[in-house]
Amino acid sequence: MNKVTINRRRHIFKAVTWNLLAMTTTYLVLTILPPYCGLEGISKEGAGFLTIVDRAIKLLFYYGHERAWFASNFGVIKNR
User: Total structural domains in the chain?
Assistant: First the structure.
């Protein structure tokens, strides 16, 4: 069985791209959703709702992020 080596840069780049995607998701959820949901002055219930929505969206994005990285060869070194 051939093993592969994963370059450290791949892990760092993957962590950075996930962090940017997660921050962008949080920003968009907190700026776009409240006016449409009547949560301008965010209450505890509104904050809870936005947290649940944020986590659900991030779960979907994380799955897509992982699938994209799984398909990528960036930083993968094939040992022979």
Answer: 1
